[in-house]
Amino acid sequence: MTDRRRKPAEQREQAKAARQATSLNPGFGQDLPVLEHAEEIAEAVRQHPVVVICGETGSGKSTQLPKLMLELGRGVDGAIAHTQPRRIAARSLATRVAEECDTRVGEGVGYRVRFSDRTSPGTRVKLLTDGMLLAETQSDADLADYDTIIIDEAHERSLNIDFLLGYLKRLLPRRPELRVIITSATIDPQRFAHHFDDAPVIEVSGRTYPVETRYRPLAAQSEDERERSLRQGVLDAVDELAREGRGDVLVFLPGEREIRQCAEALRKHHSAWTEVLPLFGRLSAAEQQRVFAPHAGRRIVLATNVAETSLTVPGIRYVVDSGLARISRYSYRTKVQRLPVEPIAQSSADQRAGRCGREGPGVCIRLYEQDDYEARPRFTDPEILRTNLASVILQMKHLRLGAIEQFPFVEPPDPRYVRDGLKLLDELGALDRRQNLSRLGRQLARLPIDPRLARILLAGNREGALTEMLVLAAALSIQDPRERPMDSREAADAAQSTWQDRQSDFAGLLRLWRDYREQAQHLSRRKLQAWCHTHFLSHVRMREWADVHGQLHGLVRGMGLAENAEPAKAVAIHRALLTGFLSNIARREDGSEYRGARDLKLAIHPGSGVVKKRPRWIVAAELVETRRVFARTVAEVRPEWIEPLARHLLKRRVHSPWWQADKGKVMGREELTLYGLPIVSGRKIDYAQVAPAEAREVFIRDGLLGEPPPQPPEFLSANQALVAELEALEAKTRRRDVVADLDALHAFYDEALPAEVVDGPSLQRWLDAGGDDRSLRLSREQLMARGVESTGVAYPDHLAISGVQLPLRYHFEPTASDDGVSVCIPIAALNALDPEPFEWLVPGLLEEKVITLIRALPKSLRRHFVPVPDFAQAVLEALPDREGSLESAVRGELRRMTGIDLPGDIWEAVSLPAHLSMHFIVLDEEGQTIASGRDLPALQRDLAGRATAQFAARTEPGFERTGITDWDFGDLPDQVAFDQGGITLQGYPALQVESEGLALRLLDSPERAETIHRAGVRQLLMKRFAQQARQLRRGLEGLDRMALLYRDVDGPDGLRRDLTAAVFDQVFLQQGVPRDRASWLTCCEAGREGLIEAGEQLRDRVSDILSRQEQVRRALKGNVSLGLIDSYQDIRHQLDGLIYPGFLLETPPERLADLPRYLEGLRRRVERLERDPSRDQAGLAVIQPHQQRLDETRERHARRAIRDPALEQVRWLIEEYRISLFAQELGTRERVSEKRLARAWEDVR
């Protein structure tokens, strides 16, 4: 121990003389349990350096022990230090002891708490917080100012208490005359005795009465139900106790939320003469005081564990114990101070039960099992086992007390928590590489506040924001002065709204401080209290804030730090705050959820002013876990502020070097993360500055042998042109032996270039300095490995599809996405292209593709086509060029040559080598790639809207029109050609229905144009014959009844709409859709007279169809036996394929006439099903393969955008086949059989 922390002897003698001159007259008039043991205590203190005194609250330990020590003559050689866990207790106890010793506070008896000292040289009894006594060890290592130290309320086992007890254990051998008295509630006093070498334990508890314990466990349920069950359990327990007789009830609940819920339930449940009061730490002083006020009737107090030992609630005869408490626990893994609700320890349960045995016999009802109680731990974990140890470690290092692992704590802390404390100090910059205090750490240790708050003060000095940091550090070191009483929450929120800030709760605190200081300067003390009351502020806590601020102000001034005269900017304030709370940053992910350090999921606390804005990045003064992790006292920050403040913590990764041709440099990416959060993502750096050797490799590989810089040297331009020429030959012929490999070219440059050339600028410097350009030129002989021939016919540079000349690109790289041949498609032409012609690739690859298709056949089929190359050659000679699907054409030729019929989906699952499928590149109007892939229908689906818009933007001006009400626009050609970017595109004119009426549009797909034009002409006809259209929609008899039958298919409006449209199609468009005015007039004249009659006929037909489908649907209702499920599913599938929304327009008129017969067949099938299921199963076995093949083929055609009339023919043949199998007596439209169906399948693409 160094001498600098020991007071000089002369100073100690002067203090002793002052104490000797102070006369105190302690009186012992009260009948308190501790006084009954006065002589026993005195003797123990004379004989032992440490005495443990245990007793319940109210036994007089705190008030009488210092007086007993005075009676023993102590408090002269040194003062009597009497510690308290809380400042308010130290102040109030000093007042009480001073009164009983007939002296004034600050003279014979005084107190010293953080930032407040009411002592004098003659003070003999000094009340102080345990933290303050610890702080005194910095200037008085041996605590030589004291001859007696009373550690009061040691059972609370706070961090400071445990630290003090360890410190005193080391100190006592150096100071044998020192006496230490440890007071505790009746919670594990033997642990203290054992820590001090089996010190004597004296029990001084007062008289207690018997307590009957009853167990009324709650049912085990889900979390939500447990909350309801807890409320009901409390109500039931209170009802049970009400029958026991008079007396107040104390109910222990885990937290504020449960107290509010139970209070509301009890007030509704009990009569007006029962008073229900809450008691928890966040209540205002006035609300807490109501618990101790006299009252009539019964009182029910709902309390947290604050009422276990800290406060004695008078008049309690009954206790209801939920067995739960919210315990503060620090998670070393998530770095969050958690407040989980946990089962209490046995000692806490005993303390709770003891609350009802003070004034008479009591009853305690525990809302849990006795077995549960007996299985619980005996004692609650002390704070040192469940909190962050950074502050302790900082002070231990400052006091040079050695390693924390060797310090004699009552219970040694978990090594994981020690490591975590060291990590926090490292985060704050308090430690050097050897884990000793840094210069900054020594400054932090001089400030008696949380290390995080000390850190923001030092940062505030650097940022020019020390004035604001003093205010905020003081605010964060006290309990929030803003109150929110249970019965005035809305009023409190309104009164305090002026201090809410959408960007920063810290800014709100600064505004509150400024307002308070302004009021304090002009108002009297009483008026200031009234102002606080009006704004729901605790006057005591506001005064404490001001006291702490004043003391901090003095401390920083003593350290030579200067406050800023001008208000600091928000950026400076929040940068300073970040230094103390770097591990409390978070980034918003989805919705209101944030991801914090180490992947912690959290949310902004609902009481924060920032919660509605939901900024991208935040910093919080505190992270607390209750039902979830909440960030409290929050501000918006920017990630760029964090990097310079966290350089010592950032993890840096430099990666992904690449050649950036426009700069002529090798660039890389830099990633900076703080505790897993990306602070900098993908920032570009000059890679040659970091890794020149690696940069040179990239420069040669990707610069000299890849993409040249914007102004390449002459040698490089010549080399690149020669390479490009030879690589084009390689790509087309898919050979890798034309150009010398990259290794050889790399070696050429690597040998020719000096070592200092690592990128474009260094190359240019070398050339400017006289480097030999000729030594870097490649000859054709050096580049070309072997000769090759290529023809434009086999590997053309363009492909003509749908009248459009499309450029081709070739690439030979089997693992690349664009391996093979790629076709470049302007987006405006995308929708018009049929996928099938692209299956044929280019002539040079077609034979390989056909050979691959044949070889991919199952062996049982492939054996019919050997030798495969010969069959492939014969097929190619017979095939037309690019007509229809290549696969269909190959199947057809193989069938013609051998008679072997291959299934239509035989190659569906075959995965061809990538280069045997066309690769599509969709280009925008600037020639830049929008999307690419090998699935043209998928690209068309994904880009349909954009392609349509781009096509429309490129159409000939003046062609399109809107607001059309008659055919006054001449003739419409089938297609129109126009130019886009040097490529001729085809447009397809159509009359289109739009939200604002009819318009003449040029569309990009013939199929789409056909469908849209039909609907447009139909709409124009409806305008011309509007009266008849209205009559069809509204006047046809029986439509309402039909709509009811249609309700399960589509709404009533859908039926009227489709029926009207179908009538117009049948009457006007049966012979085709007009595309010129003459055809339009003919069409109008031909259908003028027959509309209503046709509508009535179609109505009758549709009515019949709907009635029959309703019969089938009714027949399908009810229970189905297991053996018939497949049949019922098949029937429903057929029914849904016949009757669906839009079927009136999509079903050809001639087939619409067949629907009643198909539906009657379905009805008869259902009717016969129960009678003869075996017959139905036989028919199902025949039809199901065809139906499944139809469904699969339709799906495949939809994916590939194929319109195949042959497939529709198969569909209706299958319907007829069903009639022949299940209702033969109804007859078929045409002859149908397995053989007929097989022939129809042959025509399907």
TrEMBL record:
Domain named Helicase C-terminal: residues: 233-400
Enzyme Commission number(s) of this protein: 3.6.4.13
Residue ranges of the region described as Disordered: 1-30
Sequence ranges of Basic and acidic residues compositional bias: 1-16
InterPro entries per record: AAA+_ATPase, DEAD-box_helicase_OB_fold, DEAD/DEAH_box_helicase_dom, HA2_WH, Helicase-assoc_dom, Helicase_ATP-bd, Helicase_C-like, HrpA_C
Superkingdom of the source species: Bacteria
Domain spans labelled Helicase ATP-binding: 42-205
GO molecular function term, any single one: ATP binding
Pfam families registered for this protein in UniProt: DEAD, DUF3418, HA2_C, Helicase_C, OB_NTP_bind, WHD_HA2
UniProt cross-references to PROSITE patterns, sorted A to Z: HELICASE_ATP_BIND_1 (PS51192), HELICASE_CTER (PS51194)
This protein's UniProt keywords: ATP-binding, Helicase, Hydrolase, Nucleotide-binding
Signal peptide: none
NCBIfam families attached to this UniProt entry: DEAH_box_HrpA
Name used for this protein in its record: ATP-dependent RNA helicase HrpA
Organism, scientific name: Spiribacter salinus
